[in-house]
Design goal:
The chain has helices at 3-31, 38-56, 59-67, 69-72, 81-98, 101-124, 127-148, 154-162, 168-191, 206-220, 256-275, 291-305, 309-322, 332-339, 356-371, 380-391, 418-437, 441-446, 451-460, 470-478, 485-498; strands spanning 227-231, 237-241, 244-249. It is mainly alpha-helical. A 3-stranded mixed sheet has the order 1-3-2, sandwiched between helices. Helix 15 packs across helix 17 (418-437). The protein is globular.
Length: 501
């Protein structure tokens, strides 16, 4: 290894340690920290974030990357890990240094004010309290996108932060095909006789819910010798090393399904993190992964596996033994239909598998209009309601259930939402490919075995860390482009059967 690369690795390994320390403070803040710790914790985290940023953006890193340009080459081989290391370190460095520090500070400051204003505005369901903050954030975000650079569409610069290499035009293409088929499907489903799930809203003992979730975690292969699960208000996954991956869940005594499926969702992220090679940790090879790929792994376990009939052939008798009261007399068909109940609703995070994507279309359209200055922030609530009418056919009565519901924009995270639906699309493309290569997977699932599927995802997806973006990985895994076709067929087949259309 050259001296320059050795030196670069030493610096970045320090950056990684500072980031890991900051992340573990963040994990603790969401799980065990008493409320009284908030102020000191914010200060401690800010110091660690500043130190890692300073270390990563030091002029020495720039000089080393310059010296290593030749070693990296123009289009490095994915198996050449040194070259990939340099390429991804360069991406991190450029992203961190392209923005003037004045702009970074203004964004941080504006977002922290906006977050408080958003909470208050949502509480009062009064968009006007949030509007001036959002106006400011949109202006700063446009400025940020100009610094980051793009070819034609300003939205591309923002999307690239979450979905490397993806363009708005490509998302538009994928979404257009989805809209054409999903909007009428949701319409048909909502006119069909409804599915009942009242038995799922009875009392389910929280400790028993937890124990059942742990059984499933073990069975699908989340490795508890290299990870753990805890409770938090907003479930998330974070990892500090190959041997230490944390997931969280939340449990509601009267809504078993909500907690269970968020356990499965985070388990999918956790299995992904546990599958990234040990030597990638603490390096850029594990940073800046495509969020669409990440979400494909959570949705795979939450929906494609976890909301399938085959999965519950094995697990329903076990669940019914733990909850003989609420589940007495519930057969597989009734249970399967209940956990897949479709309802057009206002809140994205409560949405079912089918309508979820329509909520993303609303946000994608509006974000693009905002950052291209074709929509004024003051007109956003009306535009929101019009989009809800267009895609879901329902209009919220108050902004708290509409334009004010998500935290993302108050954090300045514009360009993030499309990754959720891209993850859904990819989850089915990858699952279909896994079954093509291993036709025994559905049968194994019915017997409570998941190794073949999990190991396939390890070998074909997780092992690459951040080396491939979503389009590149999909081509490598499936031999074709990112394609909404398989996902549309999956949803149509599934929901036509459930709703007997
Ligand atoms: Zn997720």
């Amino acid at each position: 290894m050259s001296d320059a690369l050795q030196r670069l690795r030493a610096i970045i390994s320090d950056v990684a340690a500072l980031r890991a320390a900051e992340a573990i403070l963040g994990w603790d803040q969401e799980t065990y920290m008493p409320a009284g710790g908030a102020e000191a914790r914010a200060r401690h985290r800010a110091v660690l974030a500043r130190l890692s940023h300073e270390r990563l953006t030091s002029p020495e890193v720039g000089e080393l990357l310059e010296q290593l340009r030749e070693r990296e080459g123009a289009d490095p081989d994915p198996e050449d890990l040194d070259a990939q290391y340099i390429r991804l370190a360069r991406t991190q460095y450029e992203r961190a240094t392209k923005l003037p520090s004045r702009l970074v500070q203004e964004l941080t400051h504006a977002a922290s004010l906006a977050k408080d204003a958003w909470r208050a505005a949502k509480q009062a369901s009064d968009f006007s309290q949030f509007a001036p903050h959002l106006e400011r954030l949109v202006e700063l975000t446009i400025e940020k996108a100009e610094h980051l650079g793009y070819n034609e569409d300003i939205y591309d610069a923002l999307l690239d932060l979450y979905e490397p290499g993806m363009t708005a035009a490509e998302v538009e293409r994928v979404f257009a095909a989805l809209k054409e088929r999903l909007v009428p499907l949701v319409q048909q489903v909502s006119e069909a006789p409804q599915v009942h799930d009242a038995f799922l809203k009875q009392h389910f003992d929280p400790q028993v819910q937890w124990d059942f979730g742990m059984d499933v975690l073990r069975a699908i292969g989340f490795d508890l010798t290299r990870g753990r699960q805890d409770e938090s208000a907003h479930p998330f996954t974070t990892s500090f090393s190959h041997g230490d991956v944390r997931i969280t869940t939340r449990i509601f005594p009267n809504d078993w399904a909500s907690g269970f499926f968020s356990t499965l969702h985070e388990a999918g992220h956790g299995i992904h993190s546990q599958g990234v090679p040990a030597e990638f940790y603490d390096t850029p090879l594990a940073w800046g992964k495509s969020l669409g790929i990440s979400e494909s792994q959570s949705r795979l376990w939450e929906n494609v596996v976890g909301r399938s009939r085959g999965f519950w052939e094995f697990w329903l008798p076990r669940l019914a033994r733990r909850f003989p009261g609420p589940l007495s007399g519930v057969d597989l068909d009734r249970f399967y239909r209940a956990i897949n109940r479709v309802e057009r609703s206002f809140i994205r995070t409560d949405a079912d598998e089918l309508t979820y994507n329509l909520h993303i279309f609303v946000r994608f359209d509006l974000e693009r209009l905002l950052v291209s200055r074709r929509l004024d922030v003051r007109d956003l609530p009306a535009a929101w309601n019009a989009k809800m009418q267009e895609y879901l056919g329902i209009v919220p009565k108050k902004d708290a259930e509409g334009v004010l519901q998500d935290i993302h924009w108050s954090l300045g995270a514009i360009g993030y939402f499309p990754t959720y639906t891209l993850g859904n699309v990819l989850s089915v493309q990858y699952y279909d490919q896994a079954v093509r290569e291993h036709p025994e997977i559905p049968d194994e699932m019915r017997r409570g075995k998941f190794d073949t599927l999990r190991i396939w995802t390890n070998q074909r997806i997780h092992r690459w860390g951040a080396i491939f973006n979503a389009v590149e990985l999909t081509r490598r895994v499936t031999g074709g482009p990112l394609d909404s076709g398989p996902y549309i067929r999956y949803l149509e087949t599934k929901y036509r059967e459930i709703y007997r259309l």
